[in-house]
Amino acid sequence: MYTQERTAMANLVVGGPVAVNSYDNAIVAALVENRPVMLVHAFNGGYLRPAELKDDSHDKGVKLATALDPAVKDANGHLWHITPAGFFGQRPLYFIESAAGQVPPKPAATGGADAGRGDDGAPKPQRRRITVHQDAPKSTADTVQVGLPDKVGDKWRGKNGAIEDTQLWVVTVTPWGGITFVPITHPDAILGFKDHAVAADSEVRLTYNWGGDFTGTVINTFYPRLPNEWSVPYHHVFT
């Protein structure tokens, strides 16, 4: 149903009105080159990380951390891949995949097909993705989990049988150079925080998009940062 095709950078306009190649190099690296990035919050400079870093965890969520400790850094818990996943109309779709706990691909059996290869010909690793609860954001249940498509609970699978439905996101570049995530299963919601509290260890939830459009609001904007840019002040992120 969905392909892993990529589109030329010059043609990749994410949500509008800003083309990704007119702004930050980290956005281009994340969306076009599929390089891992930190997702740094626009409000307090904290970064997203899985609540559980191990590859066998599929029922835990995401939280905002304000200190990069060695354990998280060593496990790549501060890094995410924004992986192309086809199109919804003219909008490119993406998976938000954690670099923590990714599993190297197993060699294909003799005469068998492997699990797919990236643009460079290398087998694709198995990564846990941010998955949305079917009843988000109206439910009080956990509304995001980090897990593989076949390992998350039933309420984190698409209602029409396509597991990936609850893991597909529209990524919108905002006019101020950040990005906002909109799940295709809940287009009136954006990736935000429980009780709208943007503080250390805040739990990630889907929140209603009171901004009313795909750019969301400033408080739910993230700046992709390449790992070597973590300590570099950028706009109002580190005030």
List the helices and strands and how they pair.
Elements: H1 25-31, E1 38-41, E2 47-50, E3 62-65, H2 70-74, E4 80-88, E5 91-98, E6 129-132, E7 144-147, E8 169-173, E9 179-183, E10 189-193, E11 204-208, E12 222-225
Antiparallel strand pairs: 1-12, 2-3, 4-5, 5-8, 6-7, 8-9, 10-11
Describe the protein.
This protein is mainly beta and 239 residues long. The protein has helices spanning 25-31, 70-74, and strands at residues 38-41, 47-50, 62-65, 80-88, 91-98, 129-132, 144-147, 169-173, 179-183, 189-193, 204-208, 222-225. The chain has a 4-stranded antiparallel beta sheet with strand order 4-5-8-9, covered by helices on one side.
Oligomer: single chain
Structural class estimated from helices and strands: mainly beta
- How many angstroms separate the termini? 44 Å
Task: Determine the fraction of residues in helical runs and give it as a percent range.
Answer: under 10%
Shape: globular
Number of helices: 2
DSSP strand tally:
12
* Element-level helix/strand string: HEEEHEEEEEEEEE
Major sheet attributes: 4 strands, antiparallel
Strand content: 25-35%
| Average pLDDT level | 76
